């Protein structure tokens, strides 16, 4: 027998732990807890960890389920989709990956260090009474994956969004509560869990479902959801979790801000969440400027990411949605940033090298050993064009670093994980091995132009050059790969 639902006027239909829900196939699902949701309803985990249940706030006779079945949703896309309609509720059953957690819970956590926990010396120096808040912020940031995991999480989110937009579909209600990532930091699977609002832009622009704090201005004002509002919400969420502050919660919300009585407003928090205030790094209006001390190190002024954020949150970006970056642009800028990001072995913070001395901007360490790989397209007239820049810290002498195929082909979203070759380090030697069979490789200084197949060992050299051609491709030819240890 199904228990009656408990109603909560603030949040709609809420189910208590232990409630039983039936689907039309006669299967019983026992609710555990609410794990997320959006404008249209809530999603619950069940006693079966591979199953989740979506309960709609509005009874629509499961029309949403029928619409989803007709949409051209890409195959193998990481979105949890309905598998059965509920019998006595408006909603459906969906498959759910075990051991995943929402972005909101993983990146928004304030963790506390444990007694006798081993903490790196740089962070330990901050563990004082007067710096406790600062210590907790850095500790939580590192323990939840740091910059690199955040980049990877939003790279994969951007890829999902780009694939939807390619097929003409709008996601609508992106927020940190309806996108999930693997709990284990060794894995970074990302899934969108709420597909209710998916539809063609022709239909979504007539509705405006959103989560407060993440929505584009035109959605809040009733303009409906589009590709542009999807991109706005995705980039806002990315900024918030990367920097640790909402892009519009600047100094005007600080308690010690010196207000003129004419501009005093009790609704500043709401204005910030709705994007009405200038963004905190606005280049034309500094009235809400805020520097939490990390932006210049995590993003860097006038970098590609800084420009991308400004195109989204500036007055022009808010009012003229066509000027905003697309999900394709976002993924491209994130992957470039990811491939240049180094993790310092001293302070364990991540940074992009911006000086010849390779000084970590967080702790001033110069002890990081870095693998640097640059690629160029060579032309008969002697001209060469830069293709890619890849850097990775060398953790130990016998480290093995996979080199992605994008360094010669540029970035393709369907080849994110594919490798070109691996580089190993052993006893002052560099070993290049596991060559991708789609390509041909030669050492640049080999007069015999012998092709490389299995592996090549380079003794006591800190830099080498390879030539690379892709078999059966007229475009990926005459590629120079420069490998260097700095």
Automatic annotation (TrEMBL):
<feature type="domain" description="Protein kinase">
    <location>
        <begin position="29"/>
        <end position="335"/>
    </location>
</feature>
<dbReference type="Pfam" id="PF00069">
    <property type="entry name" value="Pkinase"/>
</dbReference>
<dbReference type="InterPro" id="IPR000719">
    <property type="entry name" value="Prot_kinase_dom"/>
</dbReference>
<dbReference type="GO" id="GO:0004672">
    <property type="term" value="F:protein kinase activity"/>
</dbReference>
<dbReference type="GO" id="GO:0005524">
    <property type="term" value="F:ATP binding"/>
</dbReference>
<dbReference type="InterPro" id="IPR011009">
    <property type="entry name" value="Kinase-like_dom_sf"/>
</dbReference>
<protein>
    <recommendedName>
        <fullName>Protein kinase domain-containing protein</fullName>
    </recommendedName>
</protein>
